[in-house]
Structure formats: structure tokens, C-alpha cells
Amino acid sequence: xxxxxxxxxxxxxxxxxxxxxxxxxxxxxxxxxxxxxxxxxxxxxxxxxxxxxxxxxxxxxxxxxxxxxxxxxxxxxxxxxxxxxxxxxxxxxxxxxxxxxxxxxxxxxxxxxxxxxxxxxxxxxxxxxxxxxxxxxxxxxxxxxxxxxxxxxxxxxxxxxxxxxxxxxxxxxxxxxxxxxxxxxxxxxxxxxxxxxxxxxxxxxxxxxxxxxxxxxxxxxxxxxxxxxxxxxxxxxxxxxxxxxxxxxxxxxxxxxxxxxxxxxxxxxxxxxxxxxxxxxxxxxxxxxxxxxxxxxxxxxxxxxxxxxxxxxxxxxxxxxxxxxxxxxxxxxxxxxxxxxxxxxxxxxxxxxxxxxxxxxxxxxxxxxxxxxxxxxxxxxxxxxxxxxxxxxxxxxxxxxxxxxxxxxxxxxxx
Length: 415
Hints:
Belongs to the glutamate:Na(+) symporter (ESS) (TC 2.A.27) family. With 415 residues, the chain is mainly α. The protein has one domain (69-287, 302-413). It has helices spanning 8-28, 30-34, 39-58, 69-82, 86-91, 93-120, 125-134, 139-150, 160-190, 196-204, 221-244, 260-278, 285-305, 309-313, 317-341, 346-360, 363-377, 381-413, and strands at 2-5, 60-63, 249-250, 253-254. The chain has a two-stranded parallel sheet. Strands 3-4 form a two-stranded antiparallel ribbon. A hairpin with a 2-residue loop joins β3 (249-250) and β4 (253-254). The longest helix is centred in the last third of the chain and has 33 residues, at 381-413.
């Protein structure tokens, strides 16, 4: 087999190339523009398909350097934190609670559907749970963690890692594909528009971070260094806290471990509000937005172009059935439950696109879904306040409780 291993520089060129490829194809394909398919998804899936074909027919393998993947992801979440002052978080109060309830209901339903379909087609219900919130809401990190648990007694599901990684990969792709079309359908069907204030801001003033990444931003070398310093401090503190809070115990109870990106986001929020309260430094929101948008796009480009599509091609029929049902469930739930619970307005449509992103994939997918929608139709401040909070903070707690409850049910009923 011919193997080409790229170093960090070669990998960076590929990541940028994926974004440029996605942008070019979207500019030429009206369907992709109309349905707001994100650039990293278009370019990343095409490159992944090309790599799969080269591997299958020409015995070719491409190995990418993953050293930039985690820093890019962490930087993105830090910039979310640096853009979230407490005044903005307070604005999301009521909608935050409503969206959180909608998400919690969906996580439980997702596991019930996965387990139910697994039992219906006669396979281990653990396969259904792995095709539920463990891999879809949880993503690759949660999948890897829970797979280790399920591979041991009393579950003894030896293929848990392979199944969960395939499901998480499938969810990452499908979550990025359906979010834009769902929002497009809701906006067109209900003839929705942004509020008067947000339409005015779109034409006359700056937007909230991440809502309009194509808007012109004036950045100087001095201000960029200041913003980069804040990101660097949050990276250092966030990773340090995450490293030293693993396996903490309170008496006989082991405290739950939060992902590193949650700690980084939390440090970003603290830095922003401490600096604002003390009036030491005003965070340059537009500049932070640029850093976050670039990090997000590059992270997704790497994640999507490095997926192994052969794993999806080789999915057993039971897994294909479970995952297909989960995608249909996500589409129907976002249209008939999330959208209606959140007010049946433009903000609710953008929230539905975000829910599709992290309901099947990950919070970065949710953010890029909403970016593409707001680039097309206009801003939604509420969605960009609520979705990062729920997707980065609360959904992990909800998911952990839902998984524990589902496992207890499986042990009692089927094992």
C-alpha cells in the first residue's frame, strides 16, 4: 500500500483546500446555496469520498497530522466564551429554559427510538443505544468513553467502539446536511423574517459574534495580539483545569468529568466578564468572531475530510436502519416540536437548524448550520446565545443522565 503522511503544514494546506473547494462548489450549485449546506461539509465529504475511492481502487492511504484538531476546537469554544457577557446570557433566560426542555425530551426519545428499533429488528438493544444519544448527541468523545464501559461486564458488547464511532461519524455528516434544509423549509413555509431590529443591524451596524462571518471587520496588529493573548490564557487555564479534575472523588462518589472544551468555554466566559466588570479591557467582539469562525471552519474541514467513509459503506443493515430512523426523527422533531416550542418565529427556525447540528453531530456543526442560515436570511441573536450554552454545557449533563437511565432499563429488561 502506498501511504502518504502529511505533516502539520501539509495538513493545514489540505484543510484550507477543503474550505476553498466547498466554497467553489457551492458557488456553482444552486441547490447547495438554496439549502444552506455548509462549506466544510461539502468540501470535506467530497475529499473523504475521493480518499475512499483512492484507497479502494489504487491501494492508497493518506495520513493527516491531527495536532491542530484539538487546539482549533478549543479555540472556537473559547471565542464563544469571550463573546458571552452576562448581560447577553440574561437575555436568553426564558428561551434558554424552553429550548433546554425541548432538547432534554429529544435525548430521551432518541434513546427510546434507538433501543426500540434494535429490538424490532432483533439485535442487541445496546446497539440501539449506541445508535442513540451516546454517539449522536455525545459525539466521538462520548462514544469512545462509553464504549469502554459497554465492552466490559455486565454488558460485554465487544463491538461497541466500532459501532459507536461509525454512528458518531454518520451523525456528524448528517447533522451538517439536514440543518440548513430544515431551517429553509420552515422559513419559506411560514414566511419568516428576522426582527426589525436585527434587519436594521444587518444593514447598518455590527452583528453579534459568529452570526455574520463574511461581514467586513477592521483588525489591527495590536488588537489581534490582545485577543490572541486572551485565547492563549483560556487555552492554558482550561486544559490545566480539565487535566486536574479527572477522577475527582467526593467521599465514595466519583464526580462526573467534563470535557476539556467545556472548561475552556467556561474560562472564556470568566475572562470576558471579569475584564468587563473591572473595566481593564474591552474584548473586541468582531475580532474574536474572526478567530472563532476560522477555527470552526478549519476544525470541521479536518474532521470531515478525515472520516473513513468505508465504515459507513460497510454498515450492517441493522445499523443503517437505526441511523436512518434517527435522522428522520431529528427532522420531524425539529420541525414539529423544537420549532413550535420555541415560538414558531424566525429565531425558532434558526434554533431548529442548531438542534439538528448537535442533536446528530456536535455543537460546532450546530454553529456552522446557524451561520449558513443567518448569512442567507439575517441575524438571530437569541439562537447564538442559546445554542452554545445548551450544546456546550447542559446537553452533556442531560445526556449522561439519559444514558444511565437507559442502561439501567436495558439491564433490567434485556440482560
